[in-house]
Amino acid sequence: MSIADRVRVKHVELLSKRRYELKSATFDYRRANGEWQTQVREVYDRGNGAALLPYNLTTRCVVLVRQFRFPAFANGYDDLLIEVAAGMLDDAEPEARIRAEAEEEIGYRLAHVRKVFEAFTSPGAVTEKLHCFVAEYDAAMRIGDGGGLADEGEDIEVLELAIDDALAMISDGRIVDAKTIMLLQYAALHLFR
Ligand SMILES: Nc1nc2c(ncn2[C@@H]2O[C@H](COP(=O)(O)OP(=O)(O)O[C@H]3O[C@H](CO)[C@@H](O)[C@H](O)[C@@H]3O)[C@@H](O)[C@H]2O)c(=O)[nH]1
Ligand SMILES: [Mg+2]
């Protein structure tokens, strides 16, 4: 099913373009009752991304990262964020990008990675679609310390946590990142039983 016949884009204005693009779109939308309504929406386009939860069924552990996120800090979160490893695609294929991020951010060279779902992370304002992966890992796959690219400002700590502890950290507010919550809950439902 297409909804293209319900949308007529009339005007798109570029508001800002430094590293990424912020636009304002004016469009007509045909409402459920058939009436056309003009709307204006700001749209932030940073491209798409990929995220990964490595898991080990024998040790019942997962690998996460901890890093500073200025937008969360600006919104009152006074701590480093605990997240899954993730990166922006920069036009690469999601699987290739997430394998590279796993090496850069957590220092693991993974064997099989498996996409489990795609998710729009903030569809009212941001175009981003996130490709979410899981992968089995073990100690033999560790090839380095991870940590990210210091010259891009990354300063990433690698955390290996028991899945039960990570799930408890969602409940008590120590994990507040959406993609991380989604992947941990996926793991609880489908991987660790
Ligand atoms: N100079 C500059 N650097 C930026 C800016 N925005 C991001 N960066 C830098 O660009 C790099 C992007 O690193 P990635 O690992 O590719 O991306 P990410 O920030 O981890 O993104 C992941 O998480 C985001 C938040 O959940 C997701 O939005 C994204 O899709 C991806 O999953 C980081 O070094 C980051 O600091 C900016 O406006 N200016
Ligand atoms: Mg990243």
UniProtKB/TrEMBL annotation:
Protein name: GDP-mannose pyrophosphatase
Subunit structure: Homodimer.
InterPro entries in UniProt: NDP_pyrophosphatase, NUDIX_hydrolase-like_dom_sf, NUDIX_hydrolase_dom
PANTHER family in alphabetical order: NUDIX HYDROLASE DOMAIN-CONTAINING PROTEIN, UDP/ADP-SUGAR PYROPHOSPHATASE
Required co-factors: Mg(2+)
UniProt cross-references to CDD domains, sorted A to Z: NUDIX_GDPMK (cd24157)
Catalytic activity: GDP-alpha-D-mannose + H2O = alpha-D-mannose 1-phosphate + GMP + 2 H(+)
Keyword set, alphabetical order: Hydrolase
Family: Belongs to the Nudix hydrolase family. NudK subfamily.
Start and end residues of each Nudix hydrolase domain: 45-183
Domain of life: Bacteria
